[in-house]
Amino acid sequence: MKGLIPNNHRRWKLQNYLVFWSVMTFLILVPLITYSIYTVIKQSSQDLFLKNANITFQTFVELVDESEILDDQNRMLDFLDNAVFIGDVVYAEIIVNSKRILSPLVDDSLSNAYKEDTSFGEGEDSIYFISTTLHHPKSNAAMELRFGFDESFVETSVSTALNRTEILFMIYAITTLVMLAKIAKNVTQPIDNLRNITRHLSSGKIREPISFDSKFQEVHSLGDDLEKMRKELSRYTRILEKISQRDDLTQLPNRMVFNKKLVEIMGESSNSTASFSLLVMDLNRFKEINDAMGHQAGDILLQKLSLRMLGSVRGTDVVARLAGDEFAILLHESTGKDVDSICEKIIGVVNAPFQIEGQVVHVGISIGVAFYPLHGTTPEELLRKSDTAMYHAKRYNMGFCIYSQQHDKNVSEQIRLRSDFMGAMPNDEIRVFYQCKADLKRGALSGFEALVRWQHPNNGLIPPIDFLEIAEQTGLMNELTFYVLRQAAKDTLAWRNMGYDINVAINITPKNLMRPRFDQEVINILKEIGLSPKHVELELTEDDILDEPEQAIKILESLRDQGITIVVDDYGTGYSSLSYLKKLPISSLKIDRSFVMELDKDNTEIIKASIQMAHNIGLKVVAEGIETNEALSFLSNLGCDWGQGYYLSRPIPAEDILPLLESYDNSSNSMKKHL
Fold it and tell me: Selecting from 3.40.50.12280, 3.30.70.1130, 3.20.20.450, 3.40.140.10, what CATH number does the domain 431-452+471-674 have?
């Protein structure tokens, strides 16, 4: 039995399971029932046999009492023969005065086996012996009447009944099992059909309605529930497909759809002479805005930006968001002129101010362009080359750039420089150069601007334009700023201790302003060096402040309150007005070199107006980009406070500053003579 019982690890078909346990039930119940019936029949037959035997015997006893057969031996023999003729009596004997009168129809040997029985089956001789004592009615002499009844008839009857019962039960069992097998099949067949349907659904074919019916209410209801589930799955699948194809934030096609579309367009273009262009775009300063204003503000910015992009392209073009602040556009059948026009349009709409949560936000964009099939014939190649062009545009602040082979070399060089830059500060490869700043009213040297350089062991002196972006990308911008500040503070303190009344200006970035304790870290460095904050100027551009006004103003106010001078660099290239700058914690502004280096009519008017309005609101003015005596004289005559440029001095290392200071006489009236 142990081997027949299913264990927990075995999986049965329901039909086999039902048949198996039905058979097991019959194997157990049929013998029990048969045995019970046999026992009842046997006991009943024996009881009936004993009852009939006693009645028959009693009848003959009464006949003996009422007749005169006891006086005649022949009549007694006839009496005994008649008793045997009944059929059940196989032994009949009368004993009178110890004389035995036995029916000649009886086997003589039975007289030797005679032993009176009290119940059926005693003696194991298959004969039920019974006797009684009689008295002669006249002489009152005692005599004994003995009968033996055949028990084998009862046993045969019981055995026959048992055999018939077994046959009936076997027929019943077989019939029932066949019916159960049929019923089990009828029950399990719809379930098998449901299983096939679920397999069909699991294979992904959930859009086809389920055709299913069953005469069993429960199974039919299960089929209905399965159809309802299929409809829900189909609905959710359509929703998920839509979600999977769209960027959740901007509702633009996502990277997966864009890649698929790119492959499709390539296939179409390969069968014709048509070409198309791929634009990959990345926002400038988005991370700073997202970090400073929060992800919600960043999300709003991306949504608004997406709408502007959609309005800048044609209806046949595809705009997609690839990831983060990276977008891509497929321009169908586009020429170089089409690309230039669309890129300029996109740059224009992106550069326009955004209103985010009550604040004006400015971002920029860098676009890389690659043409099919000119720059690539596979999606991977075209994407890589447009990416390369985009990084070139970002690095050189070009707005947009069309791929060229030279860009690949530049990218390889950038990767190598990025790796080398990680060890630049630990290896003391960062150097600080200084460009003097002159007081145009007194004709005196008033200080220096600290300019960072990288003394590469193999490439020589590298300008900041080639590694500042690397510092941003590697997260080392704050460390670089503190490195320059520390070195410039040490040098300035040394020169001041020599008797030179000079200040030093250091450039800072938006990354610095978003560092929560940047102001305190600057003050701590100055305290450590021993240089007073009043001899330090921090320069930053208008856009640096506008990226995150609240955070920037908070940091700048703290620095100003502790004595540091705040200067707005590259004034005139941004969108802010002097009336707005007046609200900021700044002390002076620096006119961008582009206005000074080309003194045409428009630029001279801009410079005049800027100096006059700045003085009117209490700001000092620095002009950079002075490269001629005419420019120096022009600015001096306008009342510009300070000047800076190659005409006065090129950026030089710290070791060359002392000769410059020693040759400069603060009491001289001729700036040209001493510079």
Answer: 3.20.20.450
d(CA 267, CA 34): 82
Distances in Å between the Cα of 621 and the Cα atoms of 110, 503, 543, 616, 666 are 154, 16, 18, 11, 21
Domain 255-403 has CATH 3.30.420.10: no
> Residue 118 has which token pair?
């009290």
pLDDT for position 629: 92
Partner residues linked to 281 by β-bridges: 327, 367
Structure-token pair, residue 514: 């978003």
Topology of domain 14-158, per CATH? Beta-Lactamase (3.30.450)
Q: Could you tell me the two tokens for 390? A: 């985009």
Determine the Cα–Cα distance for residues 97 and 227; give it in Å rounded to an integer.
101
C-alpha–C-alpha distance, residues 26 and 17, integer Å:
14
* Global pTM value: 0.52
Q: Given this model, what pLDDT does residue 237 score?
A: 73
Q: What is the 3-state secondary structure (H, E, C) of 173-209?
A: HHHHHHHHHHHHHHHHHHHHHHHHHHHHHHCCCCCCC
Residue 275 gets which letter from DSSP? -
More confident residue, 409 or 430: 430
Confidence grade of residue 668 (pLDDT, cut at 50, 70, 90): very low
CA 256 to chain CA mean position, Å: 16
Judged against a pLDDT cut of 50, whether residue 675 lies above it is answered with: no
Please name every residue paired with 534 in a beta bridge, in sequence order, or none if there are none.
none
